[in-house]
Amino acid sequence: QVEVVESGGGFMQPGGSLRLSCAASGFIFPNYPMSWYRQAPGNEREWVATITSSGDSITYADSVKGRFTISRDNRENTGYLQMNSLKPEDTGVYYCHVQLKPHITLKGKGTLVTVSQ
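and the corresponding structure tokens:
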């Protein structure tokens, strides 16, 4: 089955850290770029970060630059998002996106991150 499954979300106080995982199966994960998106309650889904298939190029949204780190382990078919210095505005459901073709994106069901006192 072709899918990506996110995990690692949870509740964290401001300033804390979480590490999200994106487990890929059913396709050749190392061949494709991967991104993380998030969606806060009542908001549209927004892009967070992207890493190329080989990991040699990474880009971040300004809102997370310097705090979040995207990475991938192609041997394990898994992508990651290390989130440090979390803020309440980081709250939302985080989704892994894998661009299989120009108009075909594989998405997971998401993992909820809540940052609050």
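(Above: one complete record from the training split.) The two ends are 39 Å apart (CA to CA).
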